[in-house]
């Protein structure tokens, strides 16, 4: 809007209460996903821009958002020592600086801080900007190449960002563990451990049952051997350890 003052100040909003899945920065118009992770589909959002003049003028347009459930391994996280609300207000300038210094097309995947509550958005002094870089042929560039160039251009990037934020800016690259466990992987591991424990318990129970059954059979045989009718010479007897031993034949003398 080329107007000045309130007539040139635009506020953006989503129409039809679509904030359960998306949100929009009312000052910049940047759209954020809220709860569409893992859903591969296209969403049609109706966005309104309104100036703040006495007689408010509005305009609406439809924005089609294509959500890809796949994730890229080439995302690079750039950490700025600025509050998240300041970074969001200047996100287009941040993008421009990165593109100028890297000489690549930069796509900003997300902007976030460690603060989980929205009311604390301005309390953190570190903001993370997730980016993807593409070459002139629109091919996604490897993360290591992007990191290497970011380190090489670090001083120039910080100099240009200082002009944007009107304060010294430091730029760092956040190293993310390459093989961080996903919830699905954690669930699989837990289920595998439980299954293994169950199988071990079943095996122990079977072995215990077999051993007990064998012991009962031995005791039964010993009992049968000990109980011999009277008047019959017992040629064999059982010692205290349960083993058979020869006995001397008893002499019976009838006087």
From TrEMBL:
<dbReference type="GO" id="GO:0016477">
    <property type="term" value="P:cell migration"/>
</dbReference>
<keyword id="KW-1133">Transmembrane helix</keyword>
<dbReference type="InterPro" id="IPR015919">
    <property type="entry name" value="Cadherin-like_sf"/>
</dbReference>
<dbReference type="GO" id="GO:0007156">
    <property type="term" value="P:homophilic cell adhesion via plasma membrane adhesion molecules"/>
</dbReference>
<keyword id="KW-0677">Repeat</keyword>
<dbReference type="GO" id="GO:0016342">
    <property type="term" value="C:catenin complex"/>
</dbReference>
<feature type="transmembrane region" description="Helical">
    <location>
        <begin position="185"/>
        <end position="208"/>
    </location>
</feature>
<dbReference type="InterPro" id="IPR002126">
    <property type="entry name" value="Cadherin-like_dom"/>
</dbReference>
<keyword id="KW-0106">Calcium</keyword>
<dbReference type="InterPro" id="IPR039808">
    <property type="entry name" value="Cadherin"/>
</dbReference>
<dbReference type="GO" id="GO:0008013">
    <property type="term" value="F:beta-catenin binding"/>
</dbReference>
<keyword id="KW-0472">Membrane</keyword>
<protein>
    <recommendedName>
        <fullName>Cadherin domain-containing protein</fullName>
    </recommendedName>
</protein>
<dbReference type="GO" id="GO:0005509">
    <property type="term" value="F:calcium ion binding"/>
</dbReference>
<keyword id="KW-0812">Transmembrane</keyword>
<dbReference type="Pfam" id="PF00028">
    <property type="entry name" value="Cadherin"/>
</dbReference>
<dbReference type="GO" id="GO:0045296">
    <property type="term" value="F:cadherin binding"/>
</dbReference>
<feature type="domain" description="Cadherin">
    <location>
        <begin position="1"/>
        <end position="77"/>
    </location>
</feature>
């Amino acid at each position: 809007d080329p107007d000045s003052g309130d007539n040139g100040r635009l506020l953006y909003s989503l129409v039809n209460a679509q904030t359960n899945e998306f949100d929009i920065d009312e000052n910049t118009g940047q759209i954020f996903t809220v709860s569409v992770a893992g859903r591969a589909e296209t969403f049609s959002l109706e966005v309104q821009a309104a100036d703040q003049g006495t007689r408010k003028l509005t305009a609406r347009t439809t924005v089609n958002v294509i959500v890809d459930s796949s994730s890229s391994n080439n995302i690079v996280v750039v950490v700025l020592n600025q509050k998240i609300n300041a970074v969001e207000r200047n996100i287009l300038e941040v993008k421009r600086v990165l593109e100028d210094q890297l000489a690549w097309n930069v796509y900003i995947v997300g902007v976030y801080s460690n603060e989980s509550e929205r009311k604390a958005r301005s309390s953190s002094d570190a903001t993370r900007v997730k980016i993807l870089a593409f070459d002139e042929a629109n091919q996604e560039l490897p993360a290591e190449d992007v990191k290497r160039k970011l380190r090489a251009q670090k001083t120039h990037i910080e100099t240009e960002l200082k002009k944007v934020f009107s304060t010294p800016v430091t730029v760092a690259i956040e190293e993310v563990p390459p093989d961080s466990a996903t919830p699905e992987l954690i669930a699989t591991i837990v289920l595998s451990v439980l299954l293994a424990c169950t199988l071990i318990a079943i095996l122990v129970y079977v072995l215990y049952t077999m051993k007990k059954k064998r012991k009962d059979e031995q005791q039964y045989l010993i009992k049968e051997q000990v109980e011999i009718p009277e008047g019959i010479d017992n040629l064999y007897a059982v010692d205290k350890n349960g083993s058979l031993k020869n006995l001397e034949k008893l002499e019976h003398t009838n006087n």
